[in-house]
Design a protein that fits this description.
The protein has 5 helices and 13 strands. By secondary structure, the protein is an alpha+beta fold. The chain folds into 2 domains: about 110 residues, Defensin A-like; about 60 residues, Nucleic acid-binding proteins (OB fold (Dihydrolipoamide Acetyltransferase, E2P), Beta Barrel), CATH 2.40.50. The chain binds zinc ion.
Length: about 210
């Protein structure tokens, strides 16, 4: 497969991926807009993200501080993280936040609010009426979310994609594996990574 064909498949996949995510969650989360300044990482659109998911920026920043184990500061519309963190790490933490504190555990609607009953914090859904004690969604550890181009991994193909390619979720990434079939366990070589997706080539089948 030629390099530009990978690019094309990834672009097409990107469209499909974001469309299905949007309709499921009914929530469009802006991509974190990240820059580095010295040893710090700055999320330039932090306020936009908070507005979009309708949560207090302070609550999100507290969560990130705890999760990353480092200092973070809100500065105007931006968030300053006192360490180098990758786009993937931030994205993964924001989606963990949303799974924990925004999306209804029953119906998935983001139309929810916090409710305190006695000592218990509940996530209360305006769409379906469900109320659940807030619990932290399962996190994906740093090490495990790392995926590198040019490296090989063993993955299990769990789905067939719309272009006939094999699909797998691996370390928080959606893998597109042309030539692999659902149910197969294959050794793949990562060709290209883009946002939360990657194209992989089959090296070996087990
Ligand atoms: Zn609900």
């Amino acid at each position: 497969m030629a390099q530009n064909e990978y690019e094309e498949l990834l672009n097409r996949a990107s469209g499909i991926f974001s469309k299905s995510t949007q309709s499921e969650a009914r929530l469009k989360i802006p991509d974190p807009d990240i820059i580095r300044e010295g040893k710090s990482t700055i999320v330039r659109n932090f306020q936009d993200i908070a507005d979009m998911i309708n949560r207090d920026p302070k609550h999100i920043s507290k969560f990130l501080m705890k999760e990353f184990g480092i200092g973070v500061t809100i500065s105007g519309r931006r968030l300053i993280i006192n360490r180098k963190v990758t786009y993937e790490q931030i994205s993964s933490k924001i989606s963990q936040y949303i799974d924990s504190y925004v999306n209804c555990y029953e119906c998935g609607s983001p139309d929810t609010e916090f409710l305190k009953v006695g000592r218990t914090n509940l996530l209360s859904c305006k769409a379906c009426g469900a109320q659940h004690p807030i619990k932290l969604a399962r996190e994906s550890r740093f090490e495990e979310t790392q995926l590198e181009e040019g490296k090989q991994y063993v993955v299990e193909i769990t789905e067939k994609g719309s272009s006939g390619e094999g699909r797998a979720m691996f370390r928080g990434y959606s893998l597109f594996v042309p030539g692999a079939k659902k149910g197969e366990t294959v050794k793949v070589l990562i060709k290209r990574i883009k946002r939360g997706m990657a194209i992989a080539e089959v090296v070996d089948k087990e």
